[in-house]
Amino acid sequence: MTDAFKGRVTLALTGASGAQYGLRLLQCLLQADYQVLMMVSKAAQVVVATETDINLPGTPDAQQAFLSVHYQAQPGQLRVFGREQWLAPVASGSGAPSAMVVCPCSTGSLSAIATGASNNLIERAADVALKERRQLILVPREAPYSTIHLEHMLKLSQQGVVILPASPGFYHRPDSVEAMIDFVVARILNQLGIEQALLPRWGETLL
Ligand SMILES: Cc1cc2nc3c(=O)[nH]c(=O)nc-3n(C[C@H](O)[C@H](O)[C@H](O)COP(=O)(O)O)c2cc1C
Known about the structure:
Layout: E1 7-13, H1 19-31, E2 34-40, H2 42-51, H3 60-70, E3 78-81, E4 99-105, H4 107-115, H5 121-131, E5 135-140, H6 147-157, E6 162-163, H7 177-192
Parallel strand pairs: 1-2, 1-4, 2-3, 4-5, 5-6
Helix pairs in contact: 1-7, 4-6
Bound molecules: flavin mononucleotide.
Residues 14-17, 41, 43-44, 46-47, 50, 106-109, 141-142 line the site of flavin mononucleotide.
C-alpha cells in the first residue's frame, strides 16, 4: 500500500558513469520512508557491475528482491519495473508519482527524453512527467558536453526540468568518495523537498 509511506518517487538508473549516485539516492529515499518505483536500463546494469561491488540480477523481479534485502526496504516499498512493462504505474499520468529522478542520466537517455522518444519505460515515464508538468530531475554525467547534449539540456530546462549535473563541490572538504557522492545526492533530496542530513545547506555549519 502506498499510503503506508511518506510519498512516492520514480527513480531511473541509466548508463552514465556514477551508478553510486543512483544507488545512494535509492538508499536515502527508502530510509526517508518513501516508496520508490524504479527502473534500471541495460547499460546501467553494466555500469553498476563495472563501478560497484553490487552484483545486480538481470530481471526486474530479481533486482527488486535483491535491492529490497540489500537496502532493508519495507514490504512493498521498492518496486522495480522492466523496460517494456507498459502497464507499470509510471507509464501513465494517472498512476505515476509526482516526481521522477533519472540518476545518473546518460546522454542517450537525455536525448530520448528531450525528443519524446518513449521507446522504453524510462523514456515513457519521463515523457509522462513532462506532459503532466510534474517534477523531473535529470543528473547527467559526461565530459565534455557536446553542443547536442547542451541543446537537449537547455530545451528540457526551458520546460521546467531540473538539470542537476553530477558535479560534487569541494567546499565541504570531502574526505572520501562517499562524501562526494553524498554532496550530489543531498542536492537531489533538497530538490525533492526531502529532509536530509548528508550535507548542511549553505550558511549552516560546514565543518
Ligand atoms: C562503464 C560505462 C560508463 C559509461 N559512462 C557514460 C557516461 O558517463 N555518460 C554517458 O552519457 N554515457 C556513458 N556510457 C555509455 C552509455 O551507457 C550508452 O550510451 C548507453 O547506450 C546508454 O543507454 P541508456 O540511456 O539506456 O542507459 C557508459 C557506458 C559504460 C559501459
